Amino acid sequence: MKNCVLIFIALIFTLNLKAQQTQTCGTPPIKSEWLKNYQANPDTYAKAGDTTLYVPVTVHITGTDAGTGYYPIEDIFRNFCQLNEDFEPLGIRFYIEGDLNYINNSAWYAHETFEAGTLMMELNKRPGTLNSFIVQGAAVGAGGYYNFVSDAVAMTMGSMNTPMGHIWTHELGHYFSLMHTFLGWESIVYNPNEPTPETVSGWFSPRPVERVDGSNCTVAADGFCDTPPDYLSEGGFDCSEDGFSVQLLKDPDSIFFRADGGNYMSYARDICNSYFSPEQQAAVRANLVNNRQDLLTNQIVIDTPVTASAIILEPTENETVVEAPTLEWMPVENANRYYFEISRLSNFSPSFRVREGIVSGTSTTVYGLDENINYHWRVRPFNTTYPCEGEFTTSSFMTGEGMFTDVQGVEVVNDLVLYPNIVSAGKTARLEVDLDEPVELQIYLIDAKGRKVSTLFRGKAQGNFLQDIQTTSLSTGLYWLAIQVEGVWVQRKMLIFD
Predict the structure, then answer these.
(1) 459-485: b or e for each residue (b if 16 or more CB lie within 10 Å)?
(2) How many CB atoms lie within 10 A of CB 103?
């Protein structure tokens, strides 16, 4: 029976997405039993008073099979900061739990079906956290959706790039039980030239059309009496300076009004959105306290933001480096993460970003840089509870000529071969090095973002040296083997495909 229910839900979800492919959200219009029960008697639910509630979030970033197309970390910060700003009136603060989770899978990166999204979420979500997936394309053109089967949300990169974007806020509203303010009008285009009906039936049984006088507010639309009538289910309607729709509407009593585009759960343009209503706020907190206790246990919260910047140690300003540079800085009080960025321009324009990443320590080695280039880099300390605080410290360095050499430039190496360099996932690749004499050899596996995945070998080697590279636990995508022979660095490219 459970499988039948899930198939039915998947069918409704997919139909709803197809009807909403030009709209901002693909969450289906299914009011949860929890919300129905809460709205029937909200006073019976536990309250959390004025206590700030901390919610752990796992951020999943999808890319292609080749490890390309990731949403930039700096833009994730921008959206996460906006999310916390939007939820601040609710006394809720989201914090990043653990590391960002990079997923290389083209089928999930731009998925078109509910089933694909569900599989992505089920195989990658982390328990005890609010799982948020950032994708290139989601479910037949939707800008984002809440998947109630997997209990996770997905947002597209395009929807997160809008000025004053609130797509994350909107989808988490659904996650915490809220419905669209126009509930019941899904797939129905409001026509001001026709009499407004008494009821509408989008995907489900007929629902009363909400009236301006509030006489049926508990049974119509989203069931909240402080969210006024809204019949505009087509995405991105325009609003005036006061946040209400430019378009004039009329209710079944022929009373004229304008839809409130200020509510995060409406389909107004992002720039119109600015609030959750008091009843919505109370419902979200009640849902968190009464229905999502797993998010409120075993928390690791740093309740003090970072106020200082990092002191850079290496490389020193304008230093020329002759091997893979290790960026190093002093630890900063209250910081448990550091964001670094390398650019070819001093203004750190996103178009010229070469590397970026987040580390928990105070140093990182960067591989795969070009020779004879003046690079600019910066680092910002932060902690996962307050990821928006902390100031950048900036420096620069020059890469020297011959920093990464061809194998012929290493006199003791007769040959260095990686085979195959295009390897099927789960198969084994092999590095073979023919050495004339005993040497100090180091071999590292580096991902496409320049992060060290593993140390394959460190020690003395001689003769015909063989090193197997197991790919069973590796995601598909582009990798580098960084090989140091007697202090000289050599690189080899390896592609893992599905």
Answers:
(1) eebeeebebebebeebbbbbbbbbbbb
(2) 20
CA distance 394 to 400: 20
* Residue 304: Cβ within 10 Å count: 12
Region 298-305 average pLDDT: 88
Please state which CATH class domain 407-497 belongs to. Answer: mainly beta
Planar angle of CA 227, 230, 236, nearest 5 degrees: 110
Based on the number of CB atoms within 10 Å of its own CB, is 297 exposed (0-12), middle (13-18) or buried (19 or more)?
A: exposed
Tell me how long the chain is: 498
Q: Which residue has the tokens 């989808």?
A: 171
3-state secondary structure of 191: coil
Give the E-state strand segments of 9-160 in sequence order. 53-63, 92-96, 101-104, 110-111, 130-135, 137-138, 144-147, 152-156
* Cα angle: 495, vertex 496, 498; to 5 degrees: 140
Q: Do domains 2-178+285-295 and 312-399 have the same CATH topology?
A: no
**Paired strand residues for 327:** 364
Q: Where are the domains of the chain?
A: 2-178+285-295, 183-273, 312-399, 407-497
Angle between helices 167-175 and 73-87 (to 10 degrees): 60
Using pLDDT thresholds of 50, 70 and 90, give the confidence band for residue 408: low
pLDDT tens column, 354-375: 999 999 999 998 887 888 899 9
In 213-309, the DSSP E strands lie at: 249-250, 256-257
pLDDT tens for residues 211-264?
999 999 999 999 999 999 999 998 788 999 889 999 999 999 999 999 999 999
What is the DSSP secondary-structure string of 272-286?
Answer: G--B--HHHHHHHHH
Single out the residue of 170, 173, 183 nearest to residue 25, CA to CA: 170
Q: What percent of the chain has pLDDT over 90?
A: 62
Q: What is the DSSP letter of 354?
A: E
φ and ψ at 19, to 5 degrees? -75, -20
CATH 2.60.40.10 corresponds to the domain 312-399: yes
What values do phi and psi take at 468, rounded to 5?
A: -80, 145
Closest listed residue to residue 266, CA positions, set 24, 31, 19: 24
Q: How does DSSP classify residue 363?
A: E
Say if domain 2-178+285-295 classifies as CATH 2.40.50: no
The alpha carbons of the chain give a radius of gyration, in whole angstroms, of 27
How many other β-carbons are positioned within 10 Å of the β-carbon of residue 50? Answer: 6
